[in-house]
Amino acid sequence: MSSGYSSLEEDAEDFFFTARTSFFRRAPQGKPRSGQQDVEKEKEAHSYLSKEEIKEKVHKYNLAVTDKLKMTLNSNGIYTGFIKVQMELCKSPQTSPNSGKLSPSGNGCMNTLHISSTNTVGEVIEALLKKFLVTESPAKFALYKRCHREDQVYACKLSDREHPLYLRLVAGPRTDTLSFVLREHEIGEWEAFSLPELQNFLRILDKEEDEQLQNLKRRYTAYRHKLEEALREVWKPD
């Protein structure tokens, strides 16, 4: 199965999604994209670090790169680079019948995406599905970050508004420190959490269950008292 990766020397854009052409949706005709929206998007993407901090981190990142997949910092403060996303799909997604594309089914299929620091998780998911001409809704899929700490592996589902390239920049280029995984929402949802997190969820559920039980007992106790008072009034001797 193809890894979805093409070397830079081959210059095959078939395997890459550039931020300029693949991620930004065109505005509907008659409704041009607002410049203010672009400004707000840039501010949101770069609210984490100052321009000097970004410049320093991009420089250190590129020094540590071993596969030529370096980041590029533009004069406007936006940077572009590459992320690798592993496909961990339990079933083959629905694709266009005449797509002629490889199916992203099974585990281990790796895709390299060229993205911008302004691109969100939601846009990355859409780009992956678009590459394989998957007809299913992007809402059925989720992007996870997988962190390796000592001998343990932690997985966390990313929100649609997070920026994967920023996470890549901060973590550095090593995929054994941070990697990205695409999964279906319906299957393997709880696998994204560590054992302590799952135990904490159980404690929260137990607490909520106890609170609901106590509330229910108080309601029925009050109701019983009212019935007993009513009965005493009915059977009160003349």
Automatic annotation (TrEMBL):
Signal peptide: none
Alphabetized InterPro entries for the sequence: RA_dom, RASSF1-6, SARAH_dom, Ubiquitin-like_domsf
Domain Ras-associating: 79-187
GO BP terms: signal transduction
Gene name in the database record: RASSF3
Designated name of the protein: Ras association domain-containing protein 3
Location of the protein in the cell: Cytoplasm, Cytoskeleton
Residue stretches of biased makeup (Basic and acidic residues): 38-47
GO cellular component: cytoplasm; microtubule
Location, primary (coarse class): cytoplasm
SUPFAM superfamilies: Ubiquitin-like (SSF54236)
Gene3D superfamilies in UniProt: 1.20.5.110, Phosphatidylinositol 3-kinase Catalytic Subunit, Chain A, domain 1
